[in-house]
Amino acid sequence: MEGVSIMVSANPVILEMRSITKEFPGVKALSEVSITVHASEIHSICGENGAGKSTLMKVLSGVYPFGSYQGDIVFQNSVCEFKDIRASENAGIVIIHQELALIPELSITENIFLGNEPTRFGVINWAEARMRTMELMARVGLNEDPDTPVKEIGVGKQQLVEIAKALNKSVKLLILDEPTAALNESDSQHLLDLIRGLKSKGISCIMISHKLNEIEQVSDSITIIRDGKSIETLDVKADGVDEDRIIRGMVGRTLESRFPDHTPKIGEIFFEVKDWTVGHPQISDRLVCKGSNFNVRRGEIVGIAGLMGAGRTELARSIFGRSYGNYISGQIFKDGKEITMRNVPAAIKHGLGYVTEDRKTLGLNLLDDIKTTTVSANLGAISNNTVVDRDKEYSVAEGYRKQLRTKAPTVDEGVGKLSGGNQQKVVLAKWMFTDPDLLILDEPTRGIDVGAKYEIYGIIQELANQGKGVIVISSELPELLGISDRIYTIFEGAITGVLDKNQASQESLMKRMTAATKSA
Amino acid sequence: MNIIKQLFGGNSRQFGMIFALVALIAFFQVKTDGLILTPDNVINLMNGYSYILILAIGMVLVIIAGHIDLSVGSVAAFVGIVVALSMRDWGLPWYLGIVVGLLLGAAIGAWQGFFVAYVGIPAFIVTLAGMLLFRGANQLFGKSLTIPVPKEFQSIGAGYLPEIGPNTGYNNLTLLIGFIGVAALVWGELRSRKRAVALGSDVKPFWVTVVKVVVFAAVILYVTYLFATGRPGTSFPIPGIILGVLVLVYGFISSRTTIGRHVYAVGGNRHAAALSGVKSKRTDFLVMLNMSMLAGLAGMIFVARANASGPSDGVGWELDAIAAVFIGGAAVTGGVGTVMGSMIGGLVMAVLNNGLQLLGVGSDWTQIIKGLVLLAAVVFDVYNKSQGKPSFIGFMMKKLGGNNSNPDLEVAEPLKGTIKTDA
Description:
Function (chain B): Part of the binding-protein-dependent transport system for D-xylose. Probably responsible for the translocation of the substrate across the membrane.
Order of helices and strands of chain B: HHHHHHEHHHHHHHEHHHHH
GO molecular function (chain B): transmembrane transporter activity
Distance between the termini of chain A: 33 Å
Number of domains of chain B: 1
Main location (chain B): membrane
Membrane topology (chain B): Multi-pass membrane protein
Number of strands of chain B: 2
Oligomer: heterodimer
Keywords (chain B): Cell inner membrane, Cell membrane, Membrane, Sugar transport, Transmembrane, Transmembrane helix, Transport
Distance between the termini of chain B: 44 Å
CATH architecture of chain B: Orthogonal Bundle
């Protein structure tokens, strides 16, 4: 496949990553991945969440230093052994991360020259820095006072500052990780035009994006990565690539039997969300949920599919006691009656549970042991007049440990010492003990090995069999297809469709997850 | 080392500190030719440090919740002066004076708690402001003068258990407390054994229980003996009684009640606690409120002992209390700490102070030594953690490319499990 693109491209090769293999304990994140980027080319890397795109870019930019991976990086005809980001930057490779690395309090000039200040006898020459900033800003089409603090300009302009910063380092290869994820339409367009302008000046660009329409629009070639392997490299013009073609490459994998058998016993609709609209907690005019409608039936496992940043977690957490964002409008009905949950305790009282995607920072107190964690969302049930009955606590926790087969010597074990799968079981036990009617699971198998995943799926199905509603949010489409009875898709905060299990396929979901307009 | 661990249980820092305390006492006992463990000195020690220990009780909860309170000394001084004035100028009886003091402490705590919990100002700032505010208020109300307190009120700071019953040569009430202590110890040990058996969790060998009971009972009886044989008219001091009751009550609250659990949960991981339905703001509020209330109590005890309230009462107390808590095993990042540990930490500081004083060491060296002890205690803890966390075996496994035994690595990489290892 690489051979094809080399032949059709007239430009010389600027970067070649040959057979890159990167392993983490227990997982092979990248396996023999190769990509070839030509001079003056925009090369996109496509793949599902977790396919290995970011890992590959971290290898390239020296975040994972030479020696921690196998394979060769050949940049400008010499084999590179980057030991850190600085080394790759010196070679002319600059990565711009999704989360911008700007310091909000500092001015545009200060940010651009951070760590790279022009000095005379050790004293910063601000006049020169300012002059050069003006030039750089002109190149990226940014019209601001160079003394403006970065926090006072919008995200789109901040992105331009990042690029200006890269240009200042005489970049030859620019890596953009989800550059337009946080931008609106016109800012995105400006950014894409800028990248094309840079291309014409001889700067190559590697772009990672979930927005396939943008990829289609600007890329010269596309490498598709799936499950840590490079699948194919497409030449956009020669191969006549369109979004469907990319999607097929991204998801074209055979499904294994990774799910326990399950015959759903689905009842009536008991939980319904109507016109749910929520604002971003910091940015007042940005909506994270836009008039979402969905419902859950008893005994049903409902999947929510969406790419990272599509607003899945925001939707779930705003419903769960408004624990995220600013509530604007919308209603929640449970068993036909409207309910209002202003805080988490109210949500728990109304029979909701929420298992977070971010176990370490939002889900667990890593200082706690299994038993205190298990009972922590329902302390009332094991205490008399606020005095905790430790015998009851122990036996409850022990009961769940046996039921869920959590691997730990006793329930006195600290949760920080458990593996991801066992931690997740403890978190599930915590919510099962609150006896919820609706359990929302956000990426329930993230960071969990395959065997434990199977067990977690079993637990989810068992909960549904008890007549509870379960919502599963996941980035892994095979997982959603395997476990859900019905799947909602979400894109940029809006629900773009709902598919029954037998109608849904990875392609049909991906289509609805990537472009709201194209959902049919 | 294992035997010791089985005897004391708990974390290494805590039993490390018990040893430090014992070693310290032994050291001074030898160096001062037995001056430190005399009835008079022990009674003095209790009288002179009980208010710091009371502050440490409140402070450990504040620190577990992830905050700090720098205002306790000033709050104590302000409450002290208001109580003294209320009794001298407004004619309140001593018991109403105490009520006024507690209410005022709670009100101050509510003020500070409001800013910390509901406005979201860091406690460091709120209480730094409080430190200035209430110090100024003390001097404003008291016109920078010393205000005496009545005789009855003085007993809460300088009183002793009375002599009652037959003349045994000892103070009978002190003996009674000692015996109750031993009985409670035996009962508690037996109960926890029974519980462990019933639940099928780890049961310590019986000899461990026996040795533990014997050792602790001996310590209690010896301390009882010291307190019961003081100069005529002295015995176990009233502030010690107040402290003891508070330790029991707060020890119970922190470890056995839902609100106690909430404090640890909020300090351990605020977000996780909030998503588990803990009202974290209310928890913050209550912790700050409680701290100032206890500061008020400490202030009153100090005033009672000193017979008068003055403009520079309580200067530097916050540092003693904070030091006690950290020496006692609390973590700067919150979520870790115990009331008992803080008491041991406070006693380490108290014995150090007292012992150095008996040796005739000046305040210059005393402060230097105390500073170093605080630093050493925390260094010891941090070192232990850094050694303990990625265990040696886990480290070797990682090097060998063995199984993924370190859960930290598992979620650190944004793999989300989509990658299959084609096994």
